[in-house]
Amino acid sequence: xxxxxxxxxxxxxxxxxxxxxxxxxxxxxxxxxxxxxxxxxxxxxxxxxxxxxxxxxxxxxxxxxxxxxxxxxxxxxxxxxxxxxxxxxxxxxxxxxxxxxxxxxxxxxxxxxxxxxxxxxxxxxxxxxxxxxxxxxxxxxxxxxxxxxxxxxxxxxxxxxxxxxxxxxxxxxxxxxxxxxxxxxxxxxxxxxxxxxxxx
Length: 200
What we know:
The protein has about 200 residues and is an alpha/beta fold. Helix content is about 50%, strand content about 15%.
């Protein structure tokens, strides 16, 4: 049995991770923490083999938190979760000693395999450099890029809400910003611009 401590300050997202992991016969979630301090307090009692750790915590970033956790449990494996799919974030996480780096929009698909691989002592390759800086030229934030990618896949507002664990109003706000930044007048036009510019 692989024992996992989940650390994420977004309660709804953390609960979804617990469900995803708890459905697996070989994985048991032994603790849920909402901050770096909470994680260090819970870790000894959780007897965790793997920690699923959000990069952006209210009191410390994930890279710094890895060091604290591994001082408490030297053999602990860490799977880093983030909504920020950026090269420097991934580099910092791997340099701090994480075994895998999973973006939140892919958690439902990739997290279980990442936890099993980390427990087996495997380290996933660090993500390579971004293929295009077009998104930066348009000033798109990481979350806006995620929303745009989902729109390009044909996802509805409800689909995006479920994938990113955010409210309907939040999705609408992101969509409006994406449309405005790309100089488009609709979601379809925004996707067309994004494809033309190589953003998606």
